TrEMBL record:
Family: Belongs to the CDP-alcohol phosphatidyltransferase class-I family.
Subcellular location: Cell membrane
Protein name: Phosphatidylinositol phosphate synthase
Function: Catalyzes the conjugation of the 1'-hydroxyl group of D-myo-inositol-3-phosphate (also named L-myo-inositol-1-phosphate) with a lipid tail of cytidine diphosphate diacylglycerol (CDP-DAG), forming phosphatidylinositol phosphate (PIP) and CMP. PIP is a precursor of phosphatidylinositol (PI) which is an essential lipid required for cell wall formation.
Binding site for a CDP-1,2-diacyl-sn-glycerol: 69, 73, 79
Catalysis: reaction(s): a CDP-1,2-diacyl-sn-glycerol + 1D-myo-inositol 3-phosphate = a 1,2-diacyl-sn-glycero-3-phospho-(1D-myo-inositol-3-phosphate) + CMP + H(+); 1,2-di-(9Z-octadecenoyl)-sn-glycero-3-cytidine-5'-diphosphate + 1D-myo-inositol 3-phosphate = 1,2-di-(9Z-octadecenoyl)-sn-glycero-3-phospho-(1D-myo-inositol-3-phosphate) + CMP + H(+)
Positions contributing to Mg(2+) 2 binding: 65, 86, 90
Top-level division of the source organism's lineage: Bacteria
Amino acid sequence: MLRYLRPLFSRLLLPVGRLLARLGVTPSMVTLVGALGVVVSALVFYPLGELFAGSAVITGFVLLDMLDGAVARASDNTTKWGAFLDSTLDRLSDAAILSGLMLWFFGGGENPTLGCVSLFCLVAGFGVSYIKARAEALGANCDVGVAERAERLVILLVAAGLGGLDVPYVLPAGLWILALLSGITVVQRLIETRNRLTRPRRTAGDTGSV
């Protein structure tokens, strides 16, 4: 869904990427600072119940993390290691956000039901990412699903932020929607991967018609 906006974001962020590249900032530096900021913010603000402030700070670091690709393109420094590092730290950042919410719900938030929903979202999020990575390692494209990382982050941060402003029902609704969409995406990717890996391969003698 939101992946269709990536070319637009890339063009908008490129001037900033060029500026950072001229200042000697590397893509890995941007990735590390962005991920560290998300992890620390999520595990400090959320367990204390500071959901709006935490969501605002996390959003800032998420936007910063988006600059690593722009810096890489501006400095012509796109590497497989950089892509691996970015993907790995994205998973840790997502886990930290949901872990922070879990700590709040099982602690001061006194809502173990939403704590369990947050745990499900965490596990399903890892499943969504792992299925794609494993499928592509086996040669099957698996770029499908109603809720990729961008969609999941938007739902989660908006719900948590508005929940922190005491907007009723938004946070529970957001988490249940996130859980539903994450579960659907896992199933979609499993089906897509199965179809691609079990599809009969044509041989050189196939004519393509009967």
